[in-house]
Design a protein that fits this description.
The protein is α/β, with parallel strands linked by helices. It has helices at about 20-30, 40-45, 55-75, 90-100, 110-115, 120-125, 160-170, and strands at about 5-10, 35-40, 80-85, 100-110, 150. α3 runs parallel beside α4 (about 90-100). Pathway: Sulfur metabolism; hydrogen sulfide biosynthesis; sulfite from sulfate: step 2/3.
């Protein structure tokens, strides 16, 4: 049986837990022997979208480029895990339409919690005016209206959030193989 490709798009504020949940989901998928690729917003900006700024137009172009690569991979049977702030709803919806097999995961945590988790000090710099156009401070984040999965990282454990994503993928027929021992009880 050939694996079905899908793009799982983790969106949320900086510090909400997108990468942390993505890593837990990725481990489970790889443990099942599935073909998985990761498109992390920070890494993509260093390579694929180098030179783009943080205007709305540049952010949208960044997401379109990530979406283009995700579409190519997922249509060829790969499970693509995207973790990117992707603050604007309209371009996320555009990617949903383009990709087709698309699961939006809203990694939701209050701004105050994200600021407490900020190991890089980005929120502090943004509040001090050292970083302009920072999502959640002086640039908007448009939360998804109807995400397939919502992870409330201020209220759930990492395991609970990852299990939500994996259970949805299973319900939709994207998961094959045996679950890893770490998630069998969930």
């Amino acid at each position: 049986m050939q694996q079905r490709g899908v793009t799982v798009w983790f969106t949320g504020l900086s510090g909400a837990g997108k990468t942390t949940i993505r890593m837990a989901v990725e481990k489970e998928l790889r443990d099942r022997g599935l073909a998985v690729e990761v498109l992390d917003g920070d890494i993509v900006r260093q390579h694929l979208t180098k030179g783009l700024g943080f205007s709305k137009e540049d952010r949208d172009e960044n997401i379109r480029r990530i979406g283009f690569v995700a579409h190519l991979l997922s249509r060829n049977g790969v499970i693509v895990l995207v973790s990117a702030i992707s603050p604007y709803r309209d371009v996320r919806d555009e990617m949903r339409d383009r990709i087709g097999d698309f699961v939006e995961v809203y990694v939701n945590a209050p701004l105050s919690v994200c600021e407490e988790r900020d190991v890089k000090g980005l929120y502090k710099k943004a509040r001090a005016g050292e970083i302009k156009q920072f999502t959640g401070i002086d640039d908007p984040y448009e939360a998804p209206l109807n995400p397939e999965v919502e992870c409330r990282t201020d209220q759930e454990t990492l395991e609970e959030s990852a299990a939500k994503v994996l259970n949805f993928l299973k319900q939709q027929g994207y998961l094959t193989g045996q679950p890893a021992a770490s998630l069998k009880q969930q």
